[in-house]
Amino acid sequence: MCKESRNDRPSLAGARTNYPRTQHYSENSFIRNARIGGFCFVVLLISICAGTNGVYSQSDNPSTVQGAAGEPYPNMPSIAPIGVSIGKYLDVPSSSQGPPIDPAKGYRVQDLGKGLYMITDNAIQSMFLVYDRGVVVIDAPQNLAAFIPKAIAEVSDKPITHLIYSHSHADHIGGAKALGGHPIIIAHEETLRLLKRDADPNRPLPMVTFSDRYTLRVGNQVLELSYHGNAHEPGNIFIYAPAQRVLMVVDVVFPGWMPWRRFALAQDIPGYFAQVEEIRKMDWDTYVGGHVTRTGTHADVDIQAEFNNDVKQAAATALATTKPGEGLNPLDKNNPWAFFDHYIDRVAAQCVNTLTPKWSTKLGGFDVYVWDQCYSMEQTLRIE
Ligand SMILES: [Zn+2]
Question: Which of 49, 216, 295, 300 gives 223 a disulfide partner, CB atoms 3.0 to 4.6 angstroms apart?
Fold first, then answer.
């Protein structure tokens, strides 16, 4: 009954395939409906509703429960869709894993050379730079705040004199207040704007802001801060240590891993894709992405860019070859949100199927977020 061109369901050695399909799809539909928005829907809503007088008042006793779960979509991926509980995620590839954390410490410090260090618990990352009279901290994540003074004490007895915010998000700077002292806080002007709005006592406002570039010189150390436009969120900056040849850009590239869901919640996905390409072309040796297990190399950024391009291609093909409305219950034909949910689910399923054979063993957390990336990509392609 389905004439759409789709890839065969991939077979995944070791993947969990026994997620409870039919019980959960219908529950997830409403959640997804809430996520789906955009101008084109409004246009289509108008066109669909025109000439369908009173479609929403056709029953005096509207049903408050969905119909019984139907058959799974044709060629449903073996990767469990969003909202379905599974027993075991795919194993993390060895290439995605980082050096182990000493459980007694809860963090590790990585020497990036010439006084620059990364601190991480293998989930989130920050850095600090030691100079002759003090220490510059770059990001103070909530989960690392207690460890940062200990990590600094491992290599220096100097006080924290400066604190740089990569961007405004609490997971990266929510430990700023807990650091104590009175460091000079430096951030992009958009970060100041967002932090004023958020009014979070754990994220003190920056005293020094800039719009395009700012060079911090302390002792014989240098950090070059620059703004490359909105991608992850307004105000998210590039932080470059020229002597160490280290580039830190948070929440954009995830070395060895899938981006966090929906391209790390990028507020501008075309901008996000462009920024990955920009990072790829820049001259540096070590990349600090702010998350997951390890630092990155140019090869990691190349892989991220390749994955991005593959998602874009897979979603574009699925959008072009999936027929809207095909297989939809005729009783739902006057429900535009259901009409599109049904279409977009099938687009995303095809996108996931296309990506799985190549990427499921290549990136940590592929199965965790591939549905999210496909939903995000199809929406971007339709409306941006
Ligand atoms: Zn963020």
Answer: 216
